[in-house]
Write a structure and sequence with these properties.
The chain has about 170 residues and is an alpha+beta fold. The chain is about 20% helix and about 45% strand. The two termini are about 25 Å apart.
Length: about 170
């Protein structure tokens, strides 16, 4: 269950990036760098979508070395998976998985210039295919659209996510 929670959390977070600067268009380095930034910075993720035909929405806060998850009824809980746990799982998935990325275009997200990347990734625990918007100013992920297949009972889903990085505090 703990591993599943980390995999789902990492999958929802997944495609975060860094400044594209001189990185080749087909490189996943910006995507994986953004994942690292998302997990290791104070951040608040909002995700909504469908998993196995059921509507699902999640919120995750990374702050002060802890991970908080919004659960049913809008209550918050401290996750047993620390940001370091999630980061270590991401690094393992990077090393052992298969991923391809492609720079698609430049756009703006809420007036912030962004680069859009496609991401296809297969790890031990999931397959994902989506698009990620990365700030050209900060290298942080601004939003994502992703189809995920967790396999087995967890199943398939589509998620849209947005990320905030300012005024992030632990939930009350």
């Amino acid at each position: 269950m703990f591993r599943n929670a980390i995999s789902i959390l990492a999958g929802l977070i997944l495609a975060s990036l860094t400044t594209p600067s001189a990185i080749a268009a087909d490189s996943c380095a910006p995507v994986f760098d953004a994942i690292t930034k998302l997990i290791t910075s104070a951040s608040h993720s909002y995700s909504a979508g469908v998993l196995n035909g059921k509507a699902i929405s999640t919120e995750t806060i990374y702050v002060q070395g802890k991970t908080y998850l919004a659960v049913k009824g809008g209550k918050w809980m401290l996750s047993p998976a620390t940001p370091n746990d999630v980061l270590q799982q991401e690094k393992k998935d990077e090393a052992n998985g298969k991923a391809t990325c492609q720079l698609l275009r430049n756009e703006s997200v809420d007036s912030e210039p962004a680069t859009v990347y496609s991401l296809r990734r297969e790890t031990e625990t999931l397959k994902e295919n989506g698009q990620v918007w990365i700030s050209r100013i900060t290298g942080r992920e601004l939003r994502q659209e992703v189809d995920v297949d967790y396999g087995g009972a967890v199943g398939k889903g589509h998620f849209s996510a947005r990320y905030e990085y300012s005024n992030v505090k632990p939930p009350m």
